[in-house]
TrEMBL record:
Molecular functions per Gene Ontology: signaling receptor binding
Lineage: Eukaryota, Metazoa, Chordata, Craniata, Vertebrata
Domain Ig-like: 20-120, 144-231
GO annotation terms (biological process): regulation of cytokine production; T cell receptor signaling pathway
Presence of keyword Transmembrane: yes
Protein name: Butyrophilin subfamily 1 member A1-like
Cell location: Membrane
Signal peptide span: 1-23
Length: 282
């Protein structure tokens, strides 16, 4: 190919591509899912590439599933007439760097229902573009509590409970060596606020010693653990029986001792009276 042909081809190709400054842009959202803690706040940043002033643009955040507007900024003000009702009073548009094409949306407080896919949308008078991202909502609940009660002969029932988890947590029983134990029952119930209450139980042999109940947040990979010791649990359970048996036994022994002493003393007096007469009677 002749050099002049290459120059014409390059010129034609350049003419077909958008020129810098024509108003076209890309919207860049969070590069990874946003992890939002229940009850806290989440900040959803978006910016334009190349850098340009977005002060006169329409900027919106939308839910993908279910669809609906989360927040809308236009003509230098917040417009909330079409905002989904569950976000009203919980969103704030951050525009300190809007002249550089950098904005963010703050949501507070985070609710379980905020989890899902979102779109960040920019529109100028000549062009528009959007970015998609995801919010992962999560929360770790209370420290587990273990309740111990007698089961069948040689067995004890252990029940582990905790509340305030999202999403559904993972539950594990382990023995003192860290080996997993099979639970007898396990329930995970969502409360009205969407948080999960966990209750799991296991039946173990009283010859077992120590172990633990662990509840794990699958998003944060955070664990909360409660330990149990059957040796400590069995002794308090037997203590009332020990006391109930020991006290009457002690009373019986004391009564028997007193009776023996009384009989021996009385017999001794009779012998002395018989040998020495009334003169030595005590």
């Amino acid at each position: 190919m002749q050099p002049w042909c290459v120059g014409i081809s390059t010129l034609l190709l350049s003419a077909l591509l958008p020129w810098p400054g024509t108003g076209q842009f890309h919207v860049i959202g969070p590069g990874a899912p946003v992890i939002a803690l229940i009850g806290k706040e989440a900040v959803l940043p978006c910016h334009l590439s190349p850098v340009m002033d977005a002060e006169d643009m329409d900027v919106s955040w939308y839910r993908s599933h279910p669809t609906g507007q989360v927040h809308h900024y236009s003509t230098s003000q917040d417009l909330i007439e079409h905002q989904r009702h569950e976000y009203r009073g919980r969103t704030e548009f951050l525009k300190e760097n809007i002249t550089k094409g950098q904005v963010a949306l703050r949501i507070h407080p985070i609710l379980p229902s905020d989890a899902g896919e979102y779109r960040c949308f920019f529109a100028s008078s000549t062009f528009y573009n959007e970015a998609q991202f995801k919010i992962l909502v999560t929360g770790s609940g209370t420290a587990p509590q273990i309740y111990i009660e007698p089961g069948y002969t040689g067995e004890m029932k252990l029940t582990c409970t905790s509340t305030g988890w999202y999403p559904e947590p993972e539950v594990q029983w382990r023995d003192v060596r860290g080996q997993r134990l099979t639970s007898a029952s396990e329930t995970k119930t969502a409360a009205e606020n969407g948080l999960f209450h966990v209750e799991t139980s296991i039946t173990v042999d009283t010859r077992s010693r120590d172990g633990s109940c662990t509840i794990r947040n699958p998003v944060l990979r955070e664990e909360k653990e409660a330990q149990f010791s059957l040796s400590d649990a069995v002794f308090p359970r037997l203590w009332p029986w020990i006391v109930g048996f020991a006290v009457p036994l002690c009373l019986l022994a004391a009564g028997t001792t007193f009776s023996v002493l009384f009989v021996c003393t009385k017999r001794r007096k009779r012998l002395i009276k018989k040998q020495y007469g009334k003169l030595f009677w005590i």
